[in-house]
Amino acid sequence: MIFFELIQNIALLVALAAVFQVIISRAGKRALTHTALIGFLFGAVGVFGMMSPIQYAPGIILDGRSIILAVAGLIGGPLVALISVFITGAYRIWLGGVGTLVGIAVVIASAGMGVLFHYIRKRSRNYLGALPLLGFGFLVHIVMLAIFMLLPDQIGLKIINEAGLIMLVFYPTATMLVCLLFQDYEAKEKARNDLEYLAYYDTLTGLPNRLLLIEKLNQSLSTCKQSGHESALIIFNLDRFKTLNNARGYFTGDILLRAVADRLSTVLETGDILARLSVDEFAILVQRTEKYSKIIASHAQGLADKIHIALKFPFHVGSDEISITSSLGIALFPQNSDDTIGDVLRRVNTAMHRAKKNGGNQSIVIDQSMTNMAEHCFQIERELRKAILDGELKLYLQSKVNASGIIVGAEALVRWQHSERGLIPPVSFIPIAEETDLIVDIGVWVLTEVCKIIALDGIVGRSIKLSVNISPRHFRQPGFVTSVRRILANTGADASCLIFEITEGLMIDNVSDVVAKMIELTSLGIHFSIDDFGTGYSSLTYLKRLPIHELKIDKTFVQDAPTDSDDAALIESILAIAKHMKLDVVAEGVETHEQVAFLKARAEMFYQGYLFGKPEPSHIWLKRLS
């Protein structure tokens, strides 16, 4: 009978320990609070074990508290052990009886031995294998049985005779299993933490990266709109940094970037957030509580001046004395209630590029005087509107191949055959179209042309997938899904041959609507790909919610990956994310065999770039495919 009761008690404790894992995984991560919670829960589990004990004799109970307390000490360390000992010991005193002192001794001894092995475990990099843990459990319960010998009237000897063998078989095993359970949890938690770190922090400087800055900017923009205050964003990069890299190598460049990050950190004021956005590009989110733009502009300009002064003094890298300057753009926000993150970033980047174009080593606050570019954009917009109606848009396709170089699909690209200026690349008109509803008209035209190709007899049944870039503005249109359904029905195209490429910027606003539309389109058979992954603004939390099938590594990372440790690290991080989320990967901008070798050595993926084919008119691409 005692055998089954002991097994029941142990099973209860192991089950409670599993539930405990779920609780602590959802608890706050502040160190002291988290430790106290763990100690409390270990103590609570020990108390639960004593609530259903084996009553061996009046005042003498047998339970599995020694298992829990030993694990508390080993996993949690001294503070966790102390809290759990206090809770469990207090309850044992409250139960009373002739075995109270012995029970308290078991509590203290089990936790104490756990703490001892806690430090042994630390030397083993926080992991002990099954056999050491089994030995630990055996040692704890040998000591426990020895303590039982202190019970009056030789009761301890009777317990050992009747249940000692059972305890030495099952108690150490249970101790080992619970420890392995928690070690597995710790390993998974560490992996998760290493991944929300790769996602949010720059590995070279330790500063927040673009993703984290965008989240903070989003919060600041929302707060400012509610409070009526203004804030500012400063974006700057180092002038002629590429020249330094070419002259002294990437190792020297990395040392300099770390030194710059350290020096810039000294000019910040309370509330400011310094982030590294790309190789030599940094940003500072300036957060104050003033309502007037003149005051916040003064704060931002003052901070910009401090940056120039801080960078003025030479940096000593090895035997080199390096002097650098920077070009800064400053944008105040919000300008109005409709101001978005995209608007702020566009303004501040315009200002920074103006500063660089003007010779560098200066700061520019974006203002209404910058009208020349706006006039140019207006002219392009007007001509583009007419071009769409006159049929001047042309569809180009660029092949996507597998590891064997076999074409598995293509990306659809649009060109503008201008009546006077000839063939105009998309970089000259797509950004302007993005700012108006023209991008919707272009998107509908491209999708229709692609669907016509998918429905051709020579394509049907060939497992060829064509990718279409979907603008955030187009995607957010209320009738977007209906429009896609109509195009598919009119052309007879197989939706499973379509891949919609979206940018990370799509996830900035109204994520729920984005998710709902993506799920509806996925149900039709359409796949989704994140284009230029790693250069955008989204949180991995958003990506987790989206029905994504593919990540496209931006060409800026691919091109220098074989020789640039930063780009190599970024690619490896993206591949780790893709593997974790079970996503396909496409490398864009592949131009050399060295790049292919670098990528092939790290993961299986698809390739797109000039090495495998330039963008070409759709009819020529189809002819070559056939």
From TrEMBL:
Pfam families: 5TM-5TMR_LYT (PF07694), EAL (PF00563), GGDEF (PF00990). This is Diguanylate cyclase. It is a multi-pass membrane protein. The keyword Nucleotidyltransferase applies. One of its GO terms (molecular function) is diguanylate cyclase activity. The keyword Lipid metabolism does not apply. Keywords: Cell membrane, Membrane, Nucleotidyltransferase, Transferase, Transmembrane, Transmembrane helix. Its EC number is 2.7.7.65. InterPro entries: Biofilm_reg_signaling (IPR052155), EAL_dom (IPR001633), EAL_sf (IPR035919), GGDEF_dom (IPR000160), Nucleotide_cyclase (IPR029787), Rev_trsase/Diguanyl_cyclase (IPR043128), Sig_transdc_His_kinase_LytS_TM (IPR011620). It is found in: Cell membrane. Gene3D superfamilies: 3.30.70.270, EAL domain (3.20.20.450). Residues 377-626 form the EAL domain. It comes from Candidatus Nitrotoga arctica. Residues 229-368 form the GGDEF domain. The chain crosses the membrane at residues 35-54, 66-87, 93-120, 127-151, 163-182.
